[in-house]
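Researcher: Please translate sequence to structure tokens.
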Amino acid sequence: MKNTKPQEFQRLNVSLTGLNNNVARYCAASRALEEHGYGDESLEMFKRVLDSQTTEEALAIIDEYVVFVDQ
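Model: Translation complete:
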């Protein structure tokens, strides 16, 4: 696990392989953020997703933090 945090937040690429539902995608995004030293951003994303009103809104929030890629 990396402990160094880049100077400026940049969206991370996260593989979609094996992710077949929205909960799994959220968990992968959160894990990737934490593994790359973005624990604060992971918590911020978590709080924003919890406050969202729709699945579409939650997914749009997650999209602000990561880019899902096919690998």
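Researcher: Any highlights?
Model: The chain has a mean pLDDT of 80.
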